[in-house]
Structures are given as structure tokens and as C-alpha cells.
Amino acid sequence: MDPDILSTFKILIIGESSVGKTSLLLRFINDSFDSNVSATIGVDFKTKKVTVDGNTVKLAIWDTAGVERFRTLTPSYYRNAQGAIVVYDVCRRETFNKMQTWLDELDTYTTKRNIVKMIVGNKIDQDSRQVTREEGIKFAKRHAALYIESSAKTRDGVECAFEELVQKIIQTPGLWEASVNQTGTISITQGNDAGYLPKSCTGWSCSLN
Amino acid sequence: MASVNDSKHSGDDPTTECNRLFIKSGKGLQLRALLSDAGLYSYAAICALSLHELYNYEWDQAFNQSCINNLLQHLQLPKQVKGVMISLIEGQGNQSTDAYVELLLGETNLKGKSLLVVEDMVLLAVKGGNYDARMRVLIRHMASLLRVPLELLELYEESVVEFLTEEHKEPSEEEQQELNKRNRGRKIKRYALIGLATLGGGAVLGLTGGLAAPLIGAGMGTILGGAGAAGAAAALGSTAGIAIIGSLFGVAGAGLTGFKMKKRVGEIEEFAFGPLTLKPQSSIVSNNNNRAFITQQLHISIVISGWLSDDADDNFIRPWRSLLCSREQYYLRYESQYLLELGKAMEYILSFAVSMAAQEALKYTILSGLLNAIMWPASLITLASVIDNPWGVCCRRSAEVGKQLAEVLMAREQGQRPVTLIGFSLGARVIYYCLREMASRPGKCEGIVQDAVLIGAPVTGSSKEWSRFGRVVSGRIVNGYCRGDWLLKFLYRTFSMASGVAGLQPINLKDRRMFNYDLSDLVSGHSEYPEKMREILELIGIRTRSLDSMATGDMAMKKSNSDLPVRSKVSLLTLRRCKSDNAVHQCGLDEEKWKETLAAASLETLAISSPTMSTSPSELMTP
């Protein structure tokens, strides 16, 4: 493993169909935008290295299909995810109304109780907004989730969404120490978890090699 | 930095050609049309996850890549799916196949007939003209995931062969050209390898000579039911498809029995293959309707005996009479002179040491901890010279024979299809050295051997040595041992092998392939392996012939029907039936129903069958 990489985070992107999940991902990975992205088949998988607050982490991003017929497959991707980006379309209220269902599903299938959730209201570049920013914030607060509004088309908030998510994951120690454990390269004694600071992580990653 | 795995395109294989034909014919892609994109995706994902589970070594990755590439191309899934599939093969996201299986089985158009998916896999595997052992293991794994009984899978494989070999037709001009082209290159090779004496090999391909062989698949009508089979007609009955058959069934279809040892490895005096499935004395030649007496199958088995107890005609095959691992089975005849000598020596020493077995059994059950060093009775030691010499000779020779066998297999004399090797005692030693030789040739040895079964093997038990076989064997490596095998212990008394003898102990190897079977309860010593072979095979999970079919003497008659008198009839009948109402394709056949079908089928068989009949499905269907 690359010595600079702190850990690998598994990030999920979920939400109703055609709210712009794949577009968000493509904007983040390739900095590109295509208004005619076809519906995702099953799941899309991309990786990217990002540096947040001096910590470099590798993101393994699983972009799931929102289409109904793939719905039964999505839960299988939830396992061991440290972060989830739940997307809705600010111009389509029905996608916002479904958010509760998505969060419920996330809670049901996730294997990590303190998974970091990020709610993203996408497509803010469009005029016909149906869901206000306040509504979104209120909803996110209620579910203890991060909130951001974005536009994959104009690049607004995309980078920010991923960075904030990563930041939050790094700050939640219980989450990603486990991932170090799971690689099987090192076993960590349980007692260390409490009072563990993100800064000291570099020391750990050295022992990984 | 985005690092999305993208792998090289393999565009030059015959598969692309076939794909073109698939599309041209317009009916080859029925399964694809049947499934939704979610279903196709699940299909591919199950395959990818299975690959991850089965082939996780570094050297497997090239195969995994090409396999998934072929499948994605075949299913015409968009490019982005490849990235995911590769991540699944690499084991990222530690997924289980359950969700995919559920989704696939729940596909509305598929109606739970997961057999169609497996059939599709078989066709995909075969159409390149190379049925890779890894592919077969993969398909069997997927079949079990999709809850398709392996019997049905085997029946389908049979049907594909029937379909390939059933009809002959005048070659069209296009085909003739293709044929000429193929022959030019091939003739030289064929003569060099086997000469013309291929008649012993049987099979349509062998009987018609190499020339006609590639034509057999040409212009075939649709015999089989089911969507996948229609695809077979389209894909395999075409010019490109013609190439497949010759390739699958070995050089010009002559196969193993036509093999003549041209180049000797070491000092081997005898090395030949014979068909296992029938009595040598039964009259075969009268069969003039081009029906093979050994039917060509997509999978073959080779069995190897450890010693001979007499010089009767069937001395090599007697222990294996109950074996029904595949419908096409061969035995290896090697160094019979020496093996006979060994057999006599064994008999001699046994007659003097009857009580040894009992003593030994007692030791290992009660006092195993105390008796590490065994005190051999003086009387036995005095007899040692009787057996030590033939044993030493046979050990040396069987190792040589193993290397020769490796050469034969790697030259693909058996065709591009998976082989299962089964042997006991020195036969297991032959297999051991065969695998060892193959393992030393990376790049050439993979995908040939499906399973290797070594029973009472007089070879090292070092897991390091055995671990090399993971590259050669795709399916199972079986070590059957007997803790109380005093004869083997006695023969190895002077060797101080730290790692022990494989025939006496389990191999401590962590690999999904490695299976250890303790046969101590079945056999009390080395000499009992041949007579207890049926029980041993059953324990190991290799199919055996039922007792009554063994009892009813004339095997040749059965041969012309099939090895599996009842079942194969069912195969044909049910495969036919599925065309109309798809009865068998329903997964999870309930037991009762299946039995009823069997019974009904066997009745029908009795009614129709005549000793010499060649059972073509169409004949069976006419009431």
C-alpha cells in the first residue's frame, strides 16, 4: 500500500433515479459533465486519492443505480461503507420526499452504526426549484447528516461535498480504524479507540508497511 | 488521481468472430433479449464474484480478465460495467452473490429457469473451441449458486456434443474453403503427433478420419430446446463454429486412444491409453452407422491403476468398473510387466503378514501417540527383499510415466477439454509427477486438469510441494489417505521423510482446491484400495455406476445407448420437452417430480430401446 495513504474509505452514492448521482461522480472524478448520461447499470465503481487537512486517503466510490429494478442489489453494496452521499433533485419534490426511505434503508443495511451521511440537493443551476435550502437543512439536521447543495453541471459544491464527507469520516475514529483492521495487515488492540486523534494516524500507517 | 481499472481488449480471438455470427443470425442472443439489464448485470456479477472466489492467484488474473471480457462482450453490457466487474474479481466491496442470485432468479422472463443462464455459459465457453478446465469449474460453481443440479448441467454438455456430432451435411463452398485452409496447416501436425492409426480412438471424428472432422458441426438443425440451444445452432453450426469441434475433441478427433508414443521419456517401455467404458472383448467394429462407441464428451477422465494382480485382459480396468466420473473415460496402461511383478510381490508378502494389518489398525487407534517408531517384526524384514526391488523399480518408472503423461496432456492430445485424473497407489504417483511436471511449465499448464484424485499416494506429503498444483488443477486436488496403511509405512521404512507420505496423512495445505479424505475406515491397508474403489469414490464424491447396471453384463450394449441408461434418456426427453413447456428448466425441481420423470422415462426407454439403437432425440420423441 502507498505509505502516504492513511486509509481507504468506502463511499456510497444513493438516491432516486436521475437525480444526478453519476453526474456528481463524474464531475468529482474527471471534472466532466455530460447532460446525456445513461442510467447506471448495477453500480459504477471509481477510486480517487484526495488530500484533506494534510491527510491523504483513497476513496472507493460506489455509485449505485437508482432505477427500481436494481433496487434489490443496492443493499449488498452498503456493507462496510464509511460514508454515504444521499442525493435528491431540488427541482423534483418527489425525490426529496423519498429521502426518508433511503435513509431508513441505509440504517437497515449498513454495518457501521456511525456511518457518515451527507445529504446533497443537486441541480441547483436549474430555475424550477421545488425544495428550498431551508427544508433541506432542516431535514439533514433531523437525521444528523451533513448537508450541501450542488450542481454537477456548474461544478458548485461537488468537491466540497466529498471533502466535507472525508473530513467527517476522519474525525470519526471508530469508523475507519476498523477498515485498517479489515485489510488484515495489522491487528489493533481494542483499547486504543478512545481519545484517538486523527493527526497521530500517520504513525499507524507506517506500521502497516 | 482517478485509477479506474481498464484492461486490455482481447479482440483477436475467435470469439469475436462468433459474436458477429451470433448477431448476424439474429437468434443467438435470446438469453440476452430475455433478461433485463439488471438480470444481465447480475449474471455478470455472479460470474465475477465466482472468479474471485475460485481463482485468486496472481497467475489466474489473465484468465479472469479474458473470461469477464468475453462475457461482457457476449452480454453487450456497457463499458462502465467492466470497471465494477474487475473490482468484484479483485474482491473489493466484499460482496456475496446472494442478492444477484435472487435478482436473477426473480427475473420475470426467466421464470426461475436458471438453467438457461448456465447453458449460455457453456456455449460461451465452448464456442472459442477451447473448453478450459477453469471455465468448467467456474460453470459448475455458478450452477450450484444458481441452484441448477449438476446432472442437468452435464446433460446439457452432452446435448451440445450430440448436437455437434449428430448430423452430417455436404459442405457448402464456403465451408469447403475453410476446411481446406484448416487442413493445410493441420495435416503435418496430425501426422507428426499420431499418425493415421486413429481407428482405435472411435468417435465419429476418428472414424471419418481427420478430414471430415471439422465439418461435423456444419449446417445443423436445431435439436435442442431452450433459448440457449437455439443460440448454439446459430453459433456453432457456422463456418467459424466448425473450427470448434476439431479443436475441442483433440487432434482430428483421434483423441487419446490413437496416441502413439513417439518420443519416449526416460526408459518407459509401455504407455498407452484405452477406453474404460467397455469390455475390450465385446464387438465394436460392427457398429457401422458412424456411432461412436466412446461418445465424445466435453469432459474426460483418465484413471491409473497402481499395480496389477494378474495378467488378464481387464487387469488395468477392473478396479474402475464402478467409476462414472464422465461418460468418456480412459485408462492408462503403463509398464504392465513391472506392475505385475509388484502385484505378485505384494500378494506374497501379504500372505505372510495377514495379522500385520490388524496389529497396525490397533496401533494407530489406541496407541498412536506412543508408537512413532514402529518396530517391524523380524519375519517381515526378512521378506523385505521380495518387495523392495519391484517397488523401487515401479516407483522410478511411475515418475517417468507421470512426466510422459504431462507431455501428452500439455500437447492437448485429448483435445481442448478438461481432464480429471484419478489414480491409486503408484497410479497416484503417476498423477503426482504429472502435475509436478506441468507445474514447472507456467503458461502452458493452466486450464487442462479439472480434478486430480490421488488415493494412497506414495509421494511426499509436503504441503509446499503440493501447493504448486494450485496452478495446474482448476477444481479439486483430492488426497485419500489411510493412517493404518502398514504396507506403505513398511515400504517407506528406510526413508526419513520429515514431511511424511501423502498416502498416510492429510496434506496440510490451505487452498480451496485441497481436499483430504481419511479412508482409514474403509480400507485397512494398501492392498484394499482396488476392491474398495467404489466406496472410496463415493466418499470422495465421484459418481459411480449403480450396482445393477454393473451386474447386467453386456456393457457394450449399454454403451450404444449410453452409459447412463436411465438418466441420459431423461436428458433427451426432458430437453425435448422443455422446448414446449420448459418443465425441467424450472429450478429447484422437487424431488418427487424428478423421480416420477425418471421412472416414466425409463419405461419409455424400455419400450423403445433396442440393443444397437443409436438414440437420437428425434427417434425418442416419436411415440
TrEMBL record, chain A:
It comes from the Eukaryota. It is an enzyme of class 3 (hydrolase). It holds the Pfam family Ras. Its EC number is 3.6.5.2. One of its GO terms (biological process) is protein transport. The keyword Chaperone does not apply. Keywords: GTP-binding, Hydrolase, Lipoprotein, Nucleotide-binding, Prenylation, Protein transport, Transport. One of its GO terms (molecular function) is GTP binding. It catalyses: GTP + H2O = GDP + phosphate + H(+). Belongs to the small GTPase superfamily. Rab family. PANTHER family: RAS-RELATED PROTEIN RAB. This is small monomeric GTPase. It comes from Frankliniella occidentalis (Western flower thrips).
UniProtKB/TrEMBL annotation, chain B:
Pfam families: DUF726. It is a multi-pass membrane protein. Its main location: membrane. The chain crosses the membrane at residues 191-217, 229-254, 364-387. The keyword Disulfide bond does not apply. Belongs to the TMCO4 family. This is Transmembrane and coiled-coil domain-containing protein 4. It comes from Frankliniella occidentalis (Western flower thrips). The gene is LOC113205954.
